[in-house]
From TrEMBL:
Record-annotated VWFA domain positions: 416-594
Protein name: von Willebrand factor type A domain protein
Region feature Disordered, mapped onto this chain: 212-293
InterPro entries reported in the protein's UniProt record: NorD/CobT, VWF_A, vWFA_dom_sf
Coiled-coil regions, chain positions: none
Low complexity compositional bias, start-end: 277-288
Pfam family, one: VWA
SUPFAM superfamilies found in the cross-reference section: vWA-like
Alphabetized PANTHER family for the sequence: NORD PROTEIN
Record's compositionally biased regions (Acidic residues): 213-254, 264-276
Superkingdom field: Bacteria
Length: 594
């Protein structure tokens, strides 16, 4: 069985797999987490030491990927945010709610990851609750943030944050503004489907604040009567895709009237006074200070610096900076490229198939013999067991306790073999031909075995220093591999073996096959900056139960110790005949050895 160790520790592989599922490019490297919000996400290769850390980092990836996948900023002129940090902050909060809910609907497993961000922050104290002493924009945004997360993202473990934020909001900004805000947002937050709808609601809240009169916060019953009289005078500031350049009258009046219609929310006592929870408690009334409320509202209105905008996810990104990073050079999983179909030479492909047919048949016979031997049920005598061997009971007289029959289990074959081919310039001439024959011969031989799947790749791309060709997927025929091999010219500029290994690891880990094997055919060492990553990746793969075998072609056979620095298991060949002899020694390791 393959251990989860590799998946748990390798952010590049995690990011590549998640990126493929979400259709977003996730890069691992650099020294800070960032995204352009349009095409890619980048995160350092942190030294993850716990599942909680891993899930939170995955949560960040999923959150930022959701912004890209679900079209944040679509239909929005970002110039609308210039000089309006309150508006920008409100949109950030509502948009985060929208894209996270959309991501969860699309990929349910991301809920756990995104939740883990907040669970970790709460547990480690990096996200303290708001206080009455915080500035008004923080108070406003915390109330909005946790209203969204607790009520509309069902993050109930954050309920205490919402309670504290509500108390701070009432004390700093006033309970009547809270009533108006609640009346405006609650009918709409659960219905936000587009980024523009999120902006429209944020803009309506912004206008509500701009037009709110702080002196209304005096606890005066006449205010309630006025609001009640005007209950039906509002327009709905819809969170649809229409523009809301000015929603002063609609948002202010509408929000007031909707909230103060108390007959739906509470009973009316015989004295005609409402028993609803919307009335401030005696403690809140006593602490209400209209002068302070007015000052706080004015401070909100006066904010014009974009640096004042509230973005709680950026605070989480800052907290990631304290996580240690791995020492090895980070490599990202390359995007696999298919060969250009117009370059395929069918005559060359058929000739290659003919050349290796005999060799592959001999390889198949040798491998099949090993498989049959391993699959055969074996019996032996043992000192303990459930069945006595009647033929050896005489051993009792001599004190020999080996009296029981023990049957060894049959070996089970359920294997994926990824064969990677070096296409660099140093492979030009005879070496690339030997390598092609070796790759195709192995693929043909292994494919004939039951429960064995083959994939194949080559690196780097022609006339390039990077990239990987995907030559054969699990579902493709070996004939398609021969056709794709006809296009390779050993014209790559470098030997990015570490990057190629990342692709191979991703390939075998994506397979449902239980046993996973990687074979890399190359003529020597990787590029200098890829040497250490290759060595680390091979060791990590082996610790995780993945078999990695290096197949060296050419003069590297004279420097075997150099090749063994990268591959613990290696064979050395000069031609296809050597492959037949050498492969016998590693067949058990590939197919059956535990």
């Amino acid at each position: 069985m393959i251990s989860n160790k590799l998946l748990a520790d390798s952010l590049p592989l995690i990011g590549a797999g998640l990126g493929d599922k979400l259709g977003v490019k996730i890069l691992v490297g650099g020294n800070q987490a960032c995204t352009d919000g349009r095409t890619y996400i980048q995160i350092p290769e942190f030294d993850i030491t716990s599942k909680a850390q891993k899930d939170a980092v995955l949560g960040y990836m999923a959150h930022e990927a959701a912004h890209i996948k679900f079209n944040s900023f679509k239909g929005i002129n970002t110039n609308n945010f210039n000089g309006k940090p309150v508006l920008h902050s409100l949109w950030n909060i509502i948009e985060d709610l929208r894209i996270e809910n959309a991501m969860i609907d699309s990929m349910i497993g991301t809920r756990k990851w995104m939740d883990q961000i907040w669970i970790n922050r709460k547990a480690d104290g990096t996200r303290p609750p708001v206080t009455n002493e915080d500035n008004p924009i923080t108070v406003l945004c915390d109330y909005m943030l946790f209203t969204c997360r607790v009520t509309y993202r069902d993050q109930q473990y954050l309920a205490e944050y919402l309670e504290v934020a509500e108390e701070a909001f009432i004390k700093v900004l006033g309970w009547k503004l809270q009533m108006k805000l609640d009346a405006l947002i609650h009918p709409k937050l659960g219905e936000i489907k587009t980024s523009k709808q999120a902006f429209n609601l944020a803009n309506a809240i912004f206008d509500l604040i701009e037009n709110h009169e702080p002196d209304e916060d005096e606890p005066d019953s006449s205010d309630e009567a006025d609001n009640s009289d005007n209950a039906d005078s509002s327009d709905d500031t819809s969170s649809d895709d229409s523009d809301t350049n000015s929603s002063t009258e609609t948002d202010d009046d509408g929000s007031c009237s909707n909230q103060t219609s108390t007959s739906d929310d509470g009973d009316v006592n015989p004295d005609g006074e409402s028993d609803t929870d919307s009335q401030p408690s005696s403690d809140t009334s006593e602490s209400a200070d209209p002068t302070k409320h007015k000052a706080a509202i004015e401070q909100l209105k006066s904010l014009t610096s974009d640096g004042d905008a509230f973005d709680d996810m950026s605070s989480f990104v800052d907290s990631l900076a304290i996580m240690p990073q791995t020492e090895q050079t980070s490599l990202n999983v390359p995007t696999a490229t298919t060969v250009s179909k117009h370059l395929i030479d069918d005559d060359s492909a058929n000739e290659l198939l003919s050349r290796v047919k005999g060799s592959s048949n001999q390889l198949t016979n040798k491998m099949q013999a090993v498989v049959e031997e391993e699959m055969r049920t074996k019996r032996r005598t043992a000192k303990s067991g459930k069945r006595l061997n009647s033929r050896v009971l005489h051993r009792v007289k001599s004190g020999d306790q080996r009296l029981f029959i023990r049957i060894t289990e049959k070996a089970e074959i359920d294997t994926i073999v990824e064969i990677s081919l070096d296409n660099s310039g140093s492979m030009d001439g005879d070496l690339i031909n030997v390598a092609k024959e070796a790759q195709l011969s192995l693929a043909l031989a292994l494919e004939k075995l039951n429960n064995v799947s083959i994939t194949a790749s080559a690196f780097p791309l022609d006339h390039s220093s990077k990239g990987v060709y995907e030559l054969k997927r699990e579902s493709d025929s070996v004939k398609s591999l021969a056709r794709n091999l006809s296009t390779l010219t050993a014209s790559g500029y470098n030997t990015p073996s570490g990057t190629a290994m990342m692709h191979s690891l991703k390939t075998v880990l994506s397979s449902k096959r239980d046993r996973k094997v990687i074979m890399m055919i190359t003529d020597g060492s990787p590029d200098g900056h890829e040497a250490l990553p290759l060595e680390n990746l091979v060791r990590k793969a082996e610790r995780s139960g993945i078999i990695v075998i290096g197949i060296a072609v050419g003069s590297i056979a004279n420097y075997k110790e150099c090749f063994y620095e990268f591959f613990n298991h290696a064979i050395f060949i000069q031609d296809i005949a050597d492959l037949k002899k050498e492969m016998f020694s590693v067949t058990r390791k590939i197919l059956t050895e535990s």
